[in-house]
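Q: I have two molecules that I believe assemble together. Could you output structure tokens for the complex as a whole instead of separate predictions?
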Amino acid sequence: MKLRATVVSGICAATAIFSAVAYSAEVFSGYTLLKQETKEMQDDDFLNQGMATVEKGAKLFSRPGKNGKSCESCHEAKGKKLDPKQIATFPILDKKTQRPITLQQYVINKWTEVLGNEPLKYESDDALALEAFVRNLARGQVVNVQTGGKMAPFMDQGKKLYEETRAGQLDMACASCHALYPGLKLRAQVLSQGQSNGFPLYRLADGKVVGVQTRMKQCYDQFRAEGYPYGSEENSLLELYMNARGNGLKIETPAVRF
Amino acid sequence: MKKNFLVITALSAFFPFGILAADAPPETPTPKPEKIEAYHSWKNTDYSIAAPLGGLKGDPANGRKVAIHRGKGNCLACHQMPISEEEFHGEIGPPLAGVGSRYDEGQLRLRIVNMQELNPGTLMPPFYKHPDQFNRVSKKYQGRTILTAQEVEDVVAYLLTLK
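A: Yes, here they are, computed for all two components at once.
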């Protein structure tokens, strides 16, 4: 009896160590696939290159807009009045349009409507910096996108785009790689589960901070497809579904990834 | 040559994180745009395409090159193959050593032309699916199959040599 238990646990341990991940019912962050030195880079705020963008966002947060107000006028210095738990629920249902709105779009709207500034371009440096700053306030919070009720039909649309819509000359859908083969190698690169919990993140391959919609476009380019425009309806639906897929993971903004 | 080496080494001191990008995602360099050839029709009979596309004859030596080329077959992205001069073969698809013994010519041709005929959920790109059947293709690839009919035949001929 004792021998059998030892053999079984030995096999389990060996399988855990030597098996690639492949399809997994569990969600896991891209962090678990990083090399040790990359993990250390993410964990240390002085080494983490994404923190420069967060600091830039902090400066923008305190900068007075065209009408003299700054983000701090309502949200207090360093965003103390912002609720990290609420930040972790984005994308949320926009009260005015009754459609999903991403965190970056929400920030851009406030920047223009409340502060009277010129609208920021989606995925521009300033928009990413503000988004990174705000989401960094919620670092460590569990991602908790609300998917029921009025969000349900949008989740279905996002799911359809992610799981079923093949695109490009290479004819791939997001789920083609990220649902079935995370942890396995594509040439020398380890495929992740395509989670968004670390965005905006510092991407070593690009040498700069990228938002999730930039990364989506890069993926679409890889399979020779026309991605959707930044800030578009389709991208909002995809971001909704992607963030919700990661419910239960912790926000890591700014993450560091290859 | 030595001077260039020293310059690059000195410069890389300013960009230390460059070395950590060693496993950056592979690029897919594209071949120069060639004239788009006419599409040769094919038929899936019992999960096999027995007839060579356009009656063309495949060259296994070129097929091996197409398999390696990142902008064409790019087979090593997902498959382990007996191609020892290339490092880092992917592991998403099944290994291809001996595939010429497991499948006949028609079965191999079906898999290269359109693996979706066998597995509708496959990740493997459909190398000779009709260009009209795709969705949101980037401009420079519109109207083209991933591989030309000759390239498909070359790859099939090459895979048949993997006994």
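A: One point stands out. The first helix of chain B runs from residue 2 to 12.
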